[in-house]
Amino acid sequence: MEKGSINVKTENIFPIIKKFLYSDHEIFLRELISNAVDATTKLQTLASAGVFKDELGDLTIEVILDKKKKTLTVRDKGIGMTASEVEQYINQIAFSSAEEFVKKYKGKGDTEVLIGHFGLGFYSSFMVSDKVEIITKTYKKGKDSGAVHWACDGSPEYTIEKADRKERGTDVILHINKESEEFLEEYRILDLLTKYCKFLPVPIQFGTEKTTETIEGETDKDGKPKTREVEKPRIINNTMPLWKRKPAELKDEDYKSFYRELYPATFDESLFYIHLNVDYPFNLTGVLYFPKVKQNYELQRNKIQLYCNQVFVTDSVENIVPDFLTLLHGVI
User: Fold this and answer.
1) What pLDDT, on a 0 to 100 scale, did the predictor assign at position 69?
2) What contacts 145, CB < 8 A, 6 or more positions away?
3) Distance between CA atoms of 179 and 130, rounded to whole angstroms?
């Protein structure tokens, strides 16, 4: 009997990853945002464990669209990477830093909320890009703490060099290819962020939005408070969704408000709701609403949204929950 190891050539496997890693190419944004959330969560864990002693500062993740340059950037202020970590976690396909981190810091912070575990998500960026760049700087101090610039054009070849970034964190810059130019449209990115990231635990900013605020102490000729239009960062997500909170601290109006947040196009209120909190034999939390039944009940199906670590997975749950429960609304 002979034993051996299977040899996989990168020049053969990379085109497969680019085309078939996910059946739906829009998943790339969910994966990159999830990586950014993990990098931020790791930094918070290190701070809780006393390993990171500096100020955390503003940890908002930014999504930056530049239609002229045809780039889409995901920027975080998390732990960053050293040159050796880039070599280890980026240049080795399916090598996850999350598994190693959880083993090292288990019990010293909320490591269970880390999203990535397989090390493949980053490579989904090549499904929509001609070139991907990483500019990163680690939270660590010392001789290996300099910023790093990594770039790859989708072939097995890459470049890595020093960068002049001063701030801790990582930029992932996608040069969107011609076939994927839909992802250079603001409405498309906003739609994807709302779909996949609206309940992630770290604030996510995409551009700015105009809002109206009251000018304190000033009134118009009719005695009404004066207002002005201001531009503020557009934060996509609710970092503490209802199902993550304790039922004892919630009121009936909170559940009604969350129902409207989940289904803004629905005008009818639910009949009643159930707040789930199961920890055996598996961990399951969620809020299920019993809607007012309409004659055409088929229109009510696929209203249960499935999340894992606050990341949207699917709303097609016909093979996940019993058929009679598919008439319910809510999140699990």
Assistant:
1) 97
2) 82, 137, 138
3) 10
In the chain the first and final C-alpha atoms are separated, in Å, by 50
Ramachandran area for residue 155 (φ above 0: left; ψ -120 to 50: alpha; else beta) = beta
Q: How far is Cα 133 from Cα 314, in angstroms, rounded to an integer?
A: 29
Sheet of 158-162, strands arranged across: 158-162, 148-152, 129-137, 169-176, 71-76, 61-66, 204-219, 225-235
Summarize the confidence of residues 240-266 as an average pLDDT: 89
Positive or negative, the Cα torsion across 233, 237, 240, 242?
A: positive
Burial grade of 163 (CB within 10 A; 0-12, 13-18, 19 or more): middle
How many CB atoms neighbour CB 16 within 10 A? 9
pTM, two decimals, is 0.83
Q: Is 38 exposed, middle or buried (0-12, 13-18, 19+ CB in 10 A)?
A: buried
Give the burial class of 1: count Cβ atoms within 10 A of its Cβ; 0-12 exposed, 13-18 middle, 19 or more buried.
exposed
* Cβ atoms of 236 and 261 closer than 8 Å: no
Q: Residue 51's Cα: distance from chain center in Å?
A: 25
CA–CA dist 114, 42 (Å, integer): 8
For 126-138, letters b (16+ CB in 10 Å) and e give bbbbebbbbbbbb
- Cβ atoms of 250 and 232 closer than 8 Å: no
Block residue for tokens 């040899």: 7
Alpha carbon distances (Å) from 139 to 79, 116, 168: 5, 20, 6
How confident is the model over 281-303, as a mean pLDDT?
Answer: 70
Domains of the chain in start order, with CATH, are 10-206 (3.30.565.10), 242-331 (3.30.230.80)
Write the CB contacts of 241 (distance below 8 Å, at least 6 apart in sequence). 199, 258, 310, 331
